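Example 332.
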Amino acid sequence: MHSNGLPSARIIGLGTALPARIMTNKDFEQIIDTTDEWIVQRTGMKVRHYVRSDEGIAEIAVEAGKKAMAAAGVEPEEIELVVLATATPEQPIPATAAIIQPALGVSNAVCFDIAGACSGFIYALQVVRQFIATGEVKTAMIIGAEALSKYSDFTDRSTCILFGDGAGAAVLRACEPGDGVLSCAWHTDGHYSDIIQMPGGGSKYPPHVKEHIEARLPFIKMRGNEVFKLAVRAFLEVCQEALGKAGVTTDEIRWFVPHQANLRIISAVGDRLGIPVERIYVNLEKVGNTSSASIPLAMGEVIDSGDLKRGDLVLMAAFGGGLTWAASVVRW
Ligand code: COA
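Predicted structure in complex with coenzyme A:
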C-alpha cells in the first residue's frame, strides 16, 4: 500500500444537489427522433435533472457544499481549500469556486476550479490529497458540479439524451496513514481530445460569434462508439491500478461506484473486474451522465441507503473528455 508515513485524507462528509426540473425519455420523444425503449436499451437512462434557464452551477454547488459541511460537522471557516471540478463553469471568469465562496461561507479557503471532465471529481480528490499529505492544509472541500444541459445539442439525438445536471461535494480531513483515501490512479491522453469535446465557447471559437453558433460549435460533441471501446479498457486498467496501489482485491471492495456514463460500459467493466452486480452502484436511470458530479451523486445515494459502514472499502472510477481516466480506493 501507498503508506509513506504522510497524513492521509478521509472523506468526513458528503452532500449532493439536483435541480428540480425533470427531463424524461418521453420528453425526448417529443423533440427528437427517438424512443424510450432505444434510450433504455442503449444507455440504461430514464430521467435527468436540468437547471433552470437562468441558473448555472453555482446554486447546486452551494447546496451540495453546505450539505457536505453539515454532514461532516465542520464549520465553513475550517475549510482551507476548495477545489471545484467542472466542464460547465458558472462563467469563464472568475472561477466558480471563487464565485460561491461567500455563499458557502468558506472565508479562509483558497478556491479554484479544475477541468478534468468526467474524471474531475477524482482529479480533485487527488489534488486535495496531496496538499493534505504535505501538511499544507488539514480540512478541504472538493466539489463536482455540472449544467451539461446548457451545452447539450438538442438537434443531435446521439448525445443530447445522455447528459444531466447536478452537484456533489465532499469534505476531506487529514487522518492517519492507511485510513481514508488509500490510492488514486489518474491518467490523461490528449491524442483523443477530439472524441468528446465542445469546440466552441473558448478562446479559439468564442461563443459570442454568430458563425460559431450557426456551426453549432458551443455544443457537446462525441463519437460515442469510439468512446465506448476506449472507456471499457481504460476503466478496467485504472481500477486494477488503484486496487494494486492500495494493496486490496476486488473481493474486499464493498461498493464499486463508477462514473454513470452507460449501463453497458458499467456492466462490462464490473464483469471483467469480477465484481458482482449487487456491489456495483448504478443510478444513471435517475440522473443520466452528470460528468464530474456523477460519482458524488452516486456516493450520496450509497450513504443514504445506510449500506456503508466506517471501514468499508469503496472503489470509485471515472472516464471522460481529455481523454481523462482515474480511480480511487477509499476506506470509508
Ligand atoms: N434514438 C434512436 N436512435 C439513435 C439515437 C437515439 N437517441 N442515437 C443514435 N441512434 C441511432 C444512430 O443514428 C444509429 O443509427 P444508424 O445505424 O441508422 O446509423 C444507431 O442508433 C446506432 O448508433 P450508435 O452510435 O452505434 O449507437 P451506440 O450503441 O454506440 O449507442 C451511445 C450510442 C452514445 C449511447 C454509446 O455509444 C455510448 O454510450 N458511448 C459512450 C458514451 C460515454 O461513455 N461517454 C463517457 C464520456 S462522458
